[in-house]
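step 4 of 6: structure.
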Amino acid sequence: MAESRIKSMKFGLISPDQIKDMGKVRIVTSELYDADGYPVEGGVMDPRLGVIDPGLKCRTCNGGIDECPGHFGYLELAKPILNVLYIKSTFELLKVTCRKCNKIMIEAVKNSKSFEQPNKCPHCKALQKKIKFSKPYTFYEDKEEITSVDIRERFENIPNVDLKKIGFGGGRPEWMILTLFPIPPVTTRPSITLEGGERSEDDLTHKLVDIVRINQSLKENMEIGAPEFIISDLCELVQYHTSTYFDNELSGTPLARHRSGRPLKGLVQRLKGKEGRIRGNLLGKRVNFCARTVISPDAKISINEVGIPKIVAKELTIPEYVTKTNMLYIKNLFKNNLVNYVVRPDGRRIKITKTNKKEILETIALDWVIERQLKDNDIILFNRQPSLHKASIMAHRVKIMPYKTFRLTMQVCPPYNADFDGDEMNIHVLQTDEARTEATMLMEVKNNIMSPKFGGPAIGLDMDQISGIYLLTKEDVVLSKEAAAQLLADADIDVELPEKDTFTGKEIFSLLLPEGFSMPGFKAKRCKNCITCTEEECEYDSWVRIKDGKIKTGTIDAASVGAMKGKILKAFQTYTDSDTLKDFIDQTGKLAVSYLTKRGMSIGISDLDLPTKAENGITNEIDLAIQESNNLIKKFNNKQIKILPGMTPKESLEAQIMNALANGVSRASDIVSDNIIENDLIHMAISGAKGSIINSTQMTAVVGQETILGKRISRGYHRRTLPHIMAGDLSPISHGFVSSSFKKGLTPFELFWNIMNGREGLMDKSLRTRKSGYMQRRLVNALQDLKVKDDGTIKNSYGEIIQFKAGEDGIDPSKSDWGVFDWKNKLEIR
Amino acid sequence: MNLEILKHQLVPKHEILSSKEKREVLKKFNIEKEKLPRISVSDSVVKVIGAKPGDLIRITRKSPTSGKAIYYRFVVEG
């Protein structure tokens, strides 16, 4: 077939002439195949409509299965048929055309938006009858049905000038009523041959057979002059079949069903919706060279790696060209059974089996391509849905492992938002050198540690890794030389230990820092935010100061190496390259886990014990708060409550009670943090590993107010929350205040409040994530064509200015320090 | 209602640019005036300061990121 280019395209109605023109075959019979199983000429499977069987030639264009695009046929309808897809336009047009002179009653159109049908034609003064439309495809004029013949006739008489005036474009209106029915080529509705040689036809073919059969019968009945009711019934039937052929989800029509009872797929169903042609086949496709399985953690592999199960690696292949220089390498691959396929220069793919391996190895030559299995250090893409941002698909290095799950380190979980409660992830194997290069340079994990959102590290230590590094680098940790060596060996860290008998935790951590690395001091997560900061003299060891590759002061915690927060990780960006940063994150993570494993980490009930004095203090504060609330309620009942601006007296009372109770709880919380003995619970909270001081307060002192929608619990029964409470009771205890601690145990009421709050949190979480996810998606779609240009302006794809300076301050967040430009910092890290 | 909207705290400072300033802005951003952000003559502030279609307005706003941000809008019919 000659190559041709599309110069222009026009969308509009198709005319009967065009249908006849493009139709190569006139369809006359509803038979598909004759007794010998050959397609019947003039049937819906006519061989002139195209080829679907390999090896056959097209009777129209003589092309094979790959060349012949298929050809249309046409069916001469015995009576005109309304096209349901244009039924709305047909109705509107019927209403504005005069029933007698068929001119457009322009005035009616001009004056109103809702096409009010006038009573009298302004041209011929003929009286108009009210036209009613009954779903799906019938029109009545004063209760009398208008036939398709009539409608077509009226439309034929509408002058072109009139159509132009109302903006009807794309062809003549009578083309909306079909007289010739196009029969699509067989290539659009291929039949499939089942195992027994039995043929199974496409839904559209079934539908077309129905249309042709009924049309034929209608024609015959008209010829023999059958009674009117038979003709109109048959006519209605053709209308039904054509309508469901176009769209089988019409309201007011029974679904056309397959013999099995399954609804047939109309043309509209082929295109519409998630699995339709547009969203399912054009915007999204299925791919080869991919794998999906459950993920599980492995603390010992690098953030840049992913563990691939052996069985997956055996199945996935990478093509490699046979060249003069890699002959030996290729032969070795064969020897180790790592080649799955070879592709000969003529394009034939041969699967390697035990029997043909030797033969192929002998015949293999230059220009052949072999498809070898995955091996360690290959680059692949790793993805977790929903793929919301750049870091949802990153490139990892393969590490072949036993068992059946993908393995990844905990540090790369945050960008993927992955956990190991059953999550599955996908890998894609890159097939070309270009793709692999691009992935290496742009997508590899080590090049994506810094988040473009805020310029900080999106990948870093988390949870027990933070606990471990915090406990290791705390002020009083001293390890013997042997213990230090053992620790580093456990963590697979290969560094030379200085000649010394004892090592502090800080010294061990310093071994991981690059030589000569310095950065300005900063506050650790454990910082108590004193009024005047003594910096390096900090009595809590909270000023982290790193100089010449050594920690001078300070404890390493979330603020130093944590994901999202780690200042040291950020400083590496300016000081060194991505490989060093990657190794640093790997090593600190392993070191932290090794130390924590050796040290152990646990809490018990006694860790929640407080001195009696403190316990009494807490009870006092809570009693005080409850007393205060009761006073407020008394004042409210006496109408003496202080009314806050913009609130009703009731709202003021609620706000003040909440405030009083919250203050009580926070005073109790202060007592807790002043008196609790330092234990692993507190370590977790102050190192930023997990939890906060609130959690320890809830366990040791008081749980506090439970809320629903940010208010005290107020629903349930009439004027009370539970049946055993007096109607109108406003006291804290009856509205969700939990004065017990988790250690002491909750009363039945309190437990109920706690569960109510917990359930709200659960609902909120699932509802909010869905809603905000969709909101973000719409926002991203709306903003995706905006770009920051070289001159600092933001322009859209039309070149229109949206913002004169990006973000109004011109700062590139991906190169900033958490959104701001900290030039002093940049100067000091060199 | 006879509000002095220019004095409202939420209304940023609007100025009509002289034709010289206008040329400078267009030159600075190397852009046709049609590609600037638009503002309708029927906009309340535009009516108060008396700008006409074809004028360029400089708006000085408070900004959470940079403290002060400058924006230009081209007055159009409508």
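step 5 of 6: annotate
 - Chain B has two helices and four strands.
 - The interface with chain A takes residues 29-31, 35-37, 63, 65-66, 69-72 of chain B (CB under 8 Å).
step 6 of 6: archive
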